[in-house]
């Protein structure tokens, strides 16, 4: 929890610092955010996606509220829709072959609903989609993101 100096707290700097101890309080949910943060750091260490120069926005669908892009050898897919989940949603990809889940915001570890089965492999179809030479089909529950890695 972080509270920057503002009128409501008397311009105090007292809480203008991260309180890592909140992660260990079982009555709070900060532990789930910490686990997600740790998983993102682990993903960066494995794939170096933050420093990657290869990036491509594959899909921006305003009505579906879905965004997909490739960066650092990973495919990032976000469903920002508050209520709509999508089955067999097509996403164009550069690389042919098999994809599997590297990170999913819906995992129970992050207090998600575990609606995406990380053991399921996604295989590309060699047909152009969204200006990419292949596509994969994925399940996208509402308000989730999934990161896929190519095998």
Kindly list the characteristics that best describe this protein.
151 residues; single chain; elongated; two-stranded antiparallel ribbon; mainly beta; 33% strand
Give a description of the structure.
The chain has one helix spanning about 30-45, and strands at about 55-60, 65-70, 75-80, 85-95, 100-105, 120-125, 135-140, 145-150. By secondary structure, the chain is mainly beta. The strands form two sheets. It has a six-stranded antiparallel β-sheet with strand order 1-2-3-8-5-6. It has a two-stranded antiparallel sheet with strand order 4-7. It is elongated. The mean pLDDT is about 95.
Which SSEs are present, and which pair or pack?
Elements: H1 30-47, E1 55-61, E2 66-71, E3 74-79, E4 86-93, E5 98-104, E6 122-123, E7 134-140, E8 144-150
Antiparallel strand pairs: 1-2, 2-3, 3-8, 4-7, 5-6, 5-8
Q: What is the compact description of this entry?
A:
The chain contains 1 helix and 8 strands; from the N terminus they run αββββββββ.
Order of helices and strands: HEEEEEEEE
> What would you call the shape?
elongated
Distance between the termini: 38 Å
Structural class: mainly beta
Taking pLDDT < 50 over at least 5 consecutive residues as the criterion, the unreliable ranges are none
The biggest sheet amounts to:
6 strands, antiparallel
Rg from Cα: 18 Å
Mean pLDDT: 93
**Tally of contiguous helical segments:** 1
> How would you write the strand order of the largest sheet?
1-2-3-8-5-6
């Amino acid at each position: 929890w972080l509270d920057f100096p503002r009128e409501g707290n008397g311009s105090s700097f007292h809480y203008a610092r991260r309180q890592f101890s909140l992660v260990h309080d079982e009555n709070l949910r900060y532990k789930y955010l910490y686990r997600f943060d740790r998983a993102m750091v682990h993903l960066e260490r494995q794939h170096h996606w933050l420093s990657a120069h290869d990036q491509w926005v594959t899909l921006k669908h305003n009505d579906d509220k879905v965004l997909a892009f490739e960066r650092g050898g990973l495919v990032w897919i976000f469903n920002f829709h508050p209520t709509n989940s999508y089955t067999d949603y097509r996403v164009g990809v550069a690389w042919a072959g098999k994809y599997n889940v590297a990170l999913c915001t819906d995992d129970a570890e992050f207090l998600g609903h575990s609606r995406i089965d990380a053991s399921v492999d996604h295989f590309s179809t060699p047909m152009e989609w969204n200006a990419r030479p292949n596509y994969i089909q994925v399940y996208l529950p509402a308000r989730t993101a999934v990161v896929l890695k190519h095998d």
